[in-house]
Amino acid sequence: MKLKRSTVMLVGVAFLLGAGVLIAESQRSQSPELASETESTAPIFTFEETDVATLTVDRGNETLVFEQGDDEAWQMTVPDQALAEPGAIAFLLSRLNTDSPLQTVTMGADQATDFGFNAPLGVVTVALKDGTEHELILGGPDFSGSANYAVVDPDPWPPAGESEYSVLVVTRDVANGINRPLAEWKMPVEAPAPVNPRASSTPESSAPAAAPPAPAPTVEPPASEAQPTPEPTDSPTPEAAN
Predict the structure, then answer these.
(1) Residue 40 DSSP symbol
(2) Per-residue pLDDT reduced to its tens digit, 125-183
(3) How many CB atoms lie within 10 A of CB 34?
(4) DSSP string, 59-124
C-alpha cells in the first residue's frame, strides 16, 4: 500500500515541527536569563538584632541613625536625640534577617535605571558589633507593583562598566519599614498631668479657715443674790398737789 505524496509531506512537516518544539524547550530551559531567576528560602541577611551596633536609614531627603546600647535599648542620634521606638526597628530588621526574597534576577550595569536604582527609595546600612557592615539599596517596584527590587552589598556602586548584579525581589514590607513617618521611630512621650488650679494657690489660701472663737458662756447669778425688784412709789397726782 502506497501513501499519497501529500500524506508523506504532512507527516514530515509534523515531525519537523515536533522536533523544533523539543529543541526550543530544551534551549529555553538552559537559557542564562531564566537560569538566573531563582527563588530562595534563605533570609536576606543572617545577623541577629542583638548583633547590631548601629542602624542607618537614608531616605534621600532624610537620614536616621540609631545606636543599640549594651542593655539592648535603642537610641536615636540623628536627626534628634531621643529614645527610639523598638518596634519600628525590630520590624525593619526582621524584614532583613527573617524574610526571604521572592526572587533573584540578574541586572547589568546599564540596566540600573530600569530597576529604579538611579533614585533609590532608601539605603539601609547595618553595622555589626564585630565590625562588619552590610548595606541594602532599595530600588523601584517590580512589574507586579507589590514588591521592590533590591541589591545587597553591591560592589562597585553605582553600577559601571560590565558589572553584573544579583537583584533581589523583596516584599513591599521592606519599603514600609523604611518609609514610616519620623514620629513613629521615636518612643512616645507621656503628656504631663493637668495642673489643678486649686493646687497652685498659695499655702495661706489653701489652708482651711480657722473656726471663729466660741462665745464666752453666760453665768447666771444665784437666786439668793438676785436684786430685788423695786416697788413703785406713790407720787401725788397733779390734782392732789393743788
Answers:
(1) -
(2) 999 999 999 999 999 999 999 999 999 999 989 998 888 999 999 999 999 999 999 99
(3) 11
(4) -SS-EEEEEE-TTS-EEEEES--EEB-HHHHHHHHHHHHTPPPSEEEEEEGGGTTTTTTTS-SEEE
What are the C-alpha distances in Å from 97 to residues 48, 133, 174, 179?
A: 7, 14, 11, 18
Spatial CA neighbour of 85 closest among 177, 188, 181: 188
Q: Based on the number of CB atoms within 10 Å of its own CB, is 131 exposed (0-12), middle (13-18) or buried (19 or more)?
A: exposed
Q: According to the 3-state scheme, what is the secondary structure of 140-209? A: EECCCCCEEEEEECCCCCCCCCCCEEEEEEEEHHHHHHHCCCHHHHECCCCCCCCCCHHHHCCHHHHCCC
Task: List the chain domain ranges.
Answer: 49-182
Q: Euclidean distance between the first and final Cα of the chain, in Å?
A: 196
Q: Distance between CA 53 and CA 76 in Å, rounded?
A: 12
Give the Cα separation of 104 and 120 in Å (integer). Answer: 18
- DSSP code, position 232: P
Beta 103-108 vs 82-83: how paired, if at all?
unpaired
pLDDT (tens digit, 9 = 90+) per residue, 18-75?
Answer: 665 555 455 443 333 333 455 668 999 999 999 999 999 999 999 999 999 999 999 9
Asked if 67 and 77 touch (Cβ cutoff 8 Å), the reply is yes
Integer-rounded Cα Rg, in Å, for the chain is 47
